[in-house]
Amino acid sequence: MSNAQLVLDQVDKFYGPVDFGLHAVKKLSMQVRKGEIIALLGSSGCGKTSTLRMIAGFEAVSRGSIALGGRPVHMLPPVKRNVAMAFEGYSLYPPLTVKENMAFALKAARLSQAEVEKRVAEVAKLLEIEDILGRYPSSISGGQQQRASLGRALIRDADLHLLDEPMGQLEPQLRALLRGRIKHFIKERGLTAILVTHDQTEANALADRIAVMEGGVLQQFDTPQKIKERPANLFTGTFVGEPPMNVFEAGVSGSAERISFGLKDGLRLDYAAQDFSPAVRDELLKRERVMLGVRPYSVRRAEGGMPVKVAVNQWLGDQTHIAADFAGNTMVLVEHDRVQLKPGDVIGIRLAPESLHVFDPQNGRAICHGEELA
Ligand SMILES: Nc1ncnc2c1ncn2[C@@H]1O[C@H](COP(=O)(O)OP(=O)(O)OP(=O)(O)O)[C@@H](O)[C@H]1O
């Protein structure tokens, strides 16, 4: 028996005939605990919205099952699922004011007038929409409609809150402010929430765990920290993290004392064998070729390091991004200070063994992260 609040078991979504139509979500299994905030993160078309709509009941599940609070819900219509939603296209009721829209579900649940007033005031303050409570949806901006719709979802008691790009139309300052407040609101009430987003910063800031999807397949379901430090595969490694992880193909060779990675242009990364655990060493030496990944903020400049030629040096106001030609590709480094370098300058870099992520070139799966096996 699972004590999870939400269980997706081998869920498939086909648009069109099962097994022949467009396979948008593939054998998706995941469990969400009560009180957790989950972000579904992935590029456009990866199946995030289809997943959310199946949980909400707006799309039929082609195969598999969904259980919420211990009861199977995938055959139930949306109104029977006790799910609160803020969806694009799931718009506010036009004949009702913003306040009436927010209060609607509370009144239906027969909450007292005093309680309704209290909750509306609280959520309106949280989302900075107190001044438009008396307005109708057609007379407010897209960003205000989005906040009103988010308010209508957050105000409700429900077994699950589903938020589809809930802040997509808001400007960055407001987004950043609301992110913190919404997280606090959800956590304080112990709500369970799933949020769909393209935005890594939003996923990292809001979510306890992130489900990374690509091509309809769940790539990794883990805490933001684990996803960053221990990406399960090349996709997650390069998709999550800004700027993206540097990746290079390498040949592996070694002995009892040394491990070497041969890169393009005759470059060689040479390490003492004891820089890696025996298990990692064994795993690496079994292979001829690997993909090496290193995060831009883990690349160190070092005198006497491997020489690379600077191609671009950009100061972004709070950090420097340096792009350098390396092994037939580009190596990006991040430094926190402003760096005086110009294109053509040669610098030395060092890739510490603990900063290396090694992946299988065939299936993309992680082999090891630094000293530890994946
Ligand atoms: N109603 C539909 N009929 C047919 N195909 C659809 C339908 N809705 C989505 N798809 C397809 O299913 C796949 C997954 O779409 P989905 O909307 O779930 O992705 P997404 O990750 O939410 O993308 P986005 O971030 O762009 O909204 C895409 O190839 C999309 O074109």
UniProtKB/TrEMBL annotation:
Example of a GO MF term: ATP binding
SUPFAM superfamilies in UniProt: MOP-like, P-loop containing nucleoside triphosphate hydrolases
Domain ABC transporter: residue ranges: 6-240
Superkingdom of the source species: Bacteria
PROSITE patterns the UniProt entry points to: ABC_TRANSPORTER_1 (PS00211), ABC_TRANSPORTER_2 (PS50893)
Short name of any one Pfam family annotated for the protein: TOBE_2
UniProt topology in membrane: Peripheral membrane protein
Family as reported in the entry's similarity comment: Belongs to the ABC transporter superfamily.
Record protein name field: Multiple sugar transport system ATP-binding protein
Lineage: Bacteria, Pseudomonadati, Pseudomonadota, Alphaproteobacteria, Hyphomicrobiales
